[in-house]
Amino acid sequence: MNPSYRNLILFLSILILASCKKDGPKFSPLASLNVADAVVGGGNVKLNTNVRDSATINSYRLFQLNASNATGIRLYPTNNPTATYYSQVHEIVNGGIYSLFLTGTAAEPESVFVKDEIPPFSQDSIVRVRVINCSPNSSAISVSLASAPATNIVNNLAYKSLTTFNSLPLRTTIPVGSNVFQVRDSNGAVLATYTLPASGTISVAASRFKCITLVIKGLVGTTSGASAFGVYAMSNY
Question: CB-side exposure of 138: number of CA atoms within 13 Å?
Answer without folding.
Answer: 36
